[in-house]
């Protein structure tokens, strides 16, 4: 444990380096460190803080800090691994608005690297499922971003829509939306305002996606009258 703590301390020094040459190796290390049991929350949180700042800077500066798809993939790998244990999950969720713009942008670019888009959809799903409290800004960001991306994907041609990778991404997005709709009235209200139903009608669903569509409609129908009473 002491050795691991020293390793976290060393990693923190690397994470604080403002040198693009170190971006890839330090993120690879952080990705691996997140697989171990948490025994040093202070250094863990500080490393993740540096990581979120890096993503935030990349978004603001047009991905200047992330010069390749490989670096984008390792960023997404870190995000996915940050949901492995409860401690890092809770910390990651509280910083979600720092990295969600990066993730949603990657998802919405239909000509973007396929692996990047698939991993982005998994990150979005993890964020939705990990959310336990109806935090207004975060719920709004997740439901609005998810519906916007689904809208873009629903306009794909038939060949693209039937591709396994497209199905995989759509399933991840819809699983996340199902969790939001099941748990948060705000998400249900926003989904109606943003025209989720019209997007569902445009889909060319496979069997698995068709089942998710039915589940979404059932949730909205089940809560519909109660939500309207609350608004009144």
UniProtKB/TrEMBL annotation:
It comes from the Eukaryota. InterPro entries: ARM-like. This is Peptidase putative.
